[in-house]
């Protein structure tokens, strides 16, 4: 995670989401934060957010902040004004007050979307979201982008989780949630490889068990993730026609994981 992504992640964590009265909007915001925190390409993820109906100005606001961070190396911590600025744009995205007279927007010199910051898709290509389903569609959009049956992205997140568990990093809980979400999407995608779906199904059950029982510091968790990662990494790098049986050992270990904790 580079400086820009770390700054933006910390800023979004400070935004008081409880000011969003709708719990679905709070959940959608949590998904946005997770996606931006774990994406390997922050700019592209923000561009994807820009394409979501009603969220273009919110995405542009985040891009604007990232641009300010790049221009000022001494900028290390967000301010209350920045947090209010982001909250204002977020409320607007979810259909609240547009906040055009908000001091935070005026203070930041960000009164309208700035198309020069991004090269958007034609309007006909952009997804639309009805007010009634806005929060659920937004969550689905990010789930599809983050999972999307991408073996490479899933492998990258699994590797990051292993590294975080080994080092005791605070990011391990975020990465565990992200990997669980990606696994859910892959299991639900009927077009995914059958062995991949089976692997993800058992891994998802294991990750939920770890989270529910707060076993992040248990050496058995680190060992199991390490043992299943290596075969999966090889499987992901192998041509689809030559993968048969490569995940059997990992699937078996995950299927029987509870025996390790009894």
How would you portray this structure in words?
This protein is mainly alpha-helical and 262 residues long. It folds into two domains: 3-146, no CATH class; 151-261, no CATH class. It has twelve helices and no strands. Helix 10 packs parallel to helix 12. The longest helix has 19 residues, at 194-212. The protein starts with a helix and ends in a 7-residue tail after the last helix.
Coarse shape: elongated
Question: Strand share of the residues?
Answer: under 5%
- The proportion of residues forming helix, as a percent range, comes to 55-70%
Following the backbone from N to C, one meets helices and strands in this order, namely: HHHHHHHHHHHH
Radius of gyration: 20 Å
Report the sheet with the most strands, covering strand number, pairing sense and barrel closure: none
Compute the number of structural domains: 2
Average pLDDT over all residues? 78
| Helix count, DSSP H or I runs of 4 or more residues | 12
Low-confidence parts:
98-107, 111-149
* Strand elements, count: 0
Structural class: mainly alpha
State the distance separating the first and last CA atoms.
36 Å
Indicate the topology.
Blueprint: H1 3-14, H2 23-38, H3 42-50, H4 56-71, H5 80-93, H6 103-108, H7 134-146, H8 151-167, H9 171-188, H10 194-212, H11 219-237, H12 248-255
Helix pairs in contact: 1-2, 1-4, 2-3, 2-7, 2-9, 3-4, 4-5, 8-9, 8-11, 9-10, 10-12, 11-12
